[in-house]
Design a protein that fits this description.
With about 350 residues, the protein is of the alpha/beta class. Helix content is about 25%, strand content about 25%. Bound molecules: NADP nicotinamide-adenine-dinucleotide phosphate (NAP) and zinc ion (2 copies).
Length: about 350
C-alpha cells in the first residue's frame, strides 16, 4: 500500500503536524498521483477547526491538488504514467442519480464524497486530502491540466476557480453585466478575473482599502470600500449579480441592497452562523439569493480548459508545508495575496 507522508490535525484546537498513513492500492479505474502543489482554501481552516460541526480526525486537509500520475489502473482511459493530473473538492459520488448522470456530481442526491473530512463510499475509509505526497482517486474525479499553465498558480483553480466560475456562468454573466465581487481573497480574486474575462463591468467590494490597486490589476473596473456608507449608497440597487465570498459571519441585507432589478446574490462563502435577511430587502427589485457549491466534473474540466485558453491562474504565495500553521493565521488576518499554495517537495525531504 502506498505509504504517504502528510500534515494532519488531530482535534479542532490542535496545530497541523507531520503524519503518515497508507493510501489504497490503485484499482482498475484509479490513478495514483504524486502531489506537486496543493492550495490552501479557507474551507480547510473551517473544517480543521470544526467550524461547520462533525469534522473527522485525524484530518489531512487540502483539495486544490496538482500532480503527476505515477500509476494508472488497467481500465484507466484518460491518463498514463507521467501525465499531469488535478484533483479538486470531490473524489466520488453515487454515479447513478439524475445529477450524477448529468455530471453535476457535486449535487449528487446521495451527497458527493469530499476529498477529505469524509468517509469514502466503502463506508469505512477516512478520505484524506492534498497536504500529502500522493493521492489515489477514480479517474472520473481527476482532471487533465494544460502543461502551459503555471502549475502552482493552477492548483487553486480546483476549488477557488470552479467555485467562482460555476455561479458566474449560471448567472449568465456576459459582456456588460454589472458584477460585484465581495471579498478579495482566494475565491474573490478569481471571481474578479473570470468576470472580467467574460466581459462584465466588475466592481470589487472589499473591507480592505489597501487592496484597491491589486483589485484593478486583477481586472476590476471599480473598487467599493464597503465600510464607507456614502460609497455603499452610491451603489444602491446597482448590480445584476453579486458574488458573495465572505468567510466570516455577516448579514446578507447590507449586500442585498446593492442589487438592481431581478439582481442575484450568489452565495459561495460559508461562515458558520446563519445570516439575517429581511423579506423587504428581497422583495424590492425582485431580488434573489442563490447558493453554489464548487462544480461538477464536466464544468470543472471546462473551466480548466478555459483557463488554459485565457491563461488564467491564481495569484499565489508558495510556501513549504512547515509554514502551514502560520499561513492559517495570516489568512484569518486577511494577509494573503491571494492564495497560499504548498510546494509539496518540502514534505518529501
Ligand atoms: P479567504 O481567502 O480568506 O478570503 C475571504 C475574504 O473575505 C477576505 O479576503 C476578505 O476580503 C473578506 N472578509 C473576511 N472577513 C470579512 C468580514 N468580517 N466582513 C466582510 N468581508 C470579510 O477565503 P476563501 O478561501 O476565498 O474562501 C471564502 C469562503 O468561501 C470561505 O467561507 C470558504 O469556506 C468558502 N468556500 C465555499 C466553496 C463553495 O463551494 N461554495 C468553495 C470554497 C470555499 P476583503 O479584505 O476584500 O474584505
Ligand atoms: Zn475549497
Ligand atoms: Zn449521485
Amino acid at each position: 500500500m502506498p505509504n504517504t507522508k502528510a500534515y494532519a490535525i488531530q482535534s479542532p484546537r490542535d496545530k497541523l503536524a507531520p503524519f503518515s498513513f497508507d493510501r489504497r492500492e490503485p484499482g482498475a479505474k484509479d490513478v495514483q498521483v504524486e502531489i506537486l502543489y496543493c492550495g490552501v482554501c479557507h474551507s480547510d481552516i473551517h473544517q480543521a477547526r470544526d467550524e461547520w460541526g462533525g469534522s473527522l480526525y485525524p484530518m489531512v486537509p487540502g483539495h486544490e491538488i496538482i500532480g503527476r500520475v505515477t500509476k494508472a489502473g488497467n481500465a484507466v482511459t484518460k491518463f498514463k504514467k507521467g501525465d499531469l493530473a488535478a484533483v479538486g473538492v470531490m473524489i466520488d459520488s453515487c454515479r447513478k442519480c439524475r445529477n450524477c448522470k448529468n455530471q453535476v456530481e457535486n449535487y449528487c442526491e446521495e451527497d458527493m464524497t469530499g476529498t477529505y473530512n469524509a468517509i469514502e463510499r466503502d463506508g469505512k475509509s477516512l478520505a484524506q486530502g492534498g497536504y500529502s505526497t500522493q493521492i489515489v482517486t477514480d479517474e472520473r474525479y481527476v482532471y487533465t491540466i494544460s502543461p502551459g499553465l503555471d502549475l502552482a498558480g493552477a492548483a487553486p483553480l480546483l476549488c477557488a476557480g470552479i467555485t467562482t466560475y460555476s455561479p458566474l456562468r449560471f448567472a449568465g454573466v456576459t459582456k456588460g453585466t454589472k458584477v460585484g465581487v465581495i471579498g478579495l481573497g482566494g475565491l474573490g480574486h478569481l471571481g474578479v478575473k473570470f468576470s472580467a474575462s467574460f466581459g462584465a463591468e466588475v466592481t470589487m467590494i472589499s473591507t480592505s482599502p489597501s487592496k484597491e490597486a491589486d483589485a484593478k490589476k486583477l481586472g476590476a473596473h471599480n473598487f467599493l470600500l464597503q465600510t464607507d456608507r456614502s460609497q455603499m449608497k452610491k451603489y444602491d440597487s446597482y448590480f445584476d449579480v453579486v458574488l458573495n465570498t465572505i468567510s466570516a459571519n455577516h448579514d446578507y441585507e447590507k449586500y442585498l441592497n446593492l442589487l438592481g432589478y431581478e439582481g442575484k446574490m450568489m452565495i459561495v462563502g460559508l461562515p458558520s452562523e446563519e445570516p439575517r435577511v429581511k423579506p423587504f430587502a428581497l422583495l424590492k427589485n425582485r431580488r434573489s439569493i442563490t447558493g453554489s457549491m464548487i462544480g461538477g466534473t464536466r464544468e470543472t474540466q471546462e473551466m480548466l480548459d478555459y483557463c488554459a485558453e485565457k491563461n488564467i491562474v491564481s495569484e499565489v504565495e508558495v510556501i513549504p508545508i512547515q509554514q502551514i500553521n502560520e499561513a492559517y493565521e495570516r489568512m484569518l488576518k486577511n494577509d494573503v495575496r491571494y492564495r497560499f499554495v504548498i510546494d509539496m517537495a518540502s514534505l518529501k525531504n
